[in-house]
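Example record

Each entry pairs one chain with its bound ligand, zinc ion.
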Amino acid sequence: MRVVLGFDCETDVGSWTPFYEGLIHGTPRFLDLLQRRGITATFFFTGVAAGGHPDLVRHVQNCGHEVGCHSIYHETVGDPLFEIPGVYPLLPEEVDNRLRVATEMVEAAAGRRPVSFRAPRLFGSTAMVNALERLGYLADSSYPMYFYRSRLAPYHPDANDWTIEGTLKIVELPTFADLSMESKDPYGRDLDQWPLFRTEGAEALLRHIDGYAGYCQARGVEPFLCFYFHPWELHPMPQGEIHYGEGSVRPDPFIVKNCGQYAVEQLDLLVEKLQERGAEFFQARQIAEQVQ
Ligand SMILES: [Zn+2]
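Structure tokens for the complex follow.
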């Protein structure tokens, strides 16, 4: 089976804080783990994370990994799949410009134009994919398998509907969800892989992976596993209320549970067990290059 590890490089706890402790302290832990396991991955940076930490971006790239783009600020660049307080989507006419600026910010930091993208929260859209195509992107890893549940393998999306196969050059990489189980969530979020590796542990996630591999086998499809993790998950995150600016946020407990050393150990175990199962690891752009 082919595996893509995608690391979304952003502020601590996604959009919920302005801090970069996780990016600064968690990213080296990913790099160390990947080097020990002899694999490479894709690091999707927001424009502001890249612009504020150009040395880190260059270091990631110099370690042999791909640097991709993850919007400017972690804004909703596509269709929101569920409501989040204070989080609103761009207007359709804003999407092109927003993605162009995000791309230029990552390019300025990396010294190389990104060719792989991932939408914050996997909130992608047809307008977004068309904009990425115009910007020359090769890969987009935003398709949330847990929500749409139809595409299993990488595919060229349709210009009028990014969730079906079409003739765009960009390749869509579905992010893994366990479709072998029945969902009890109205949006299917309980099928998603995130953040099981640290809330329930690597072995729990592996049971879902094995279940999904069986689901693929029954359909004659080679299992393709694309994951998303975050540097802030590998660094201890505040539990409870986080104050900044003019108020506080209190992330749901599962959002910050077991961030730090436990998450590092479980991710390492996950990679080890995937390698034992014969998994091969690729960067997002390498998968795009494999798809005809
Ligand atoms: Zn993100």
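The first strand starts at residue 2 and ends at 9.
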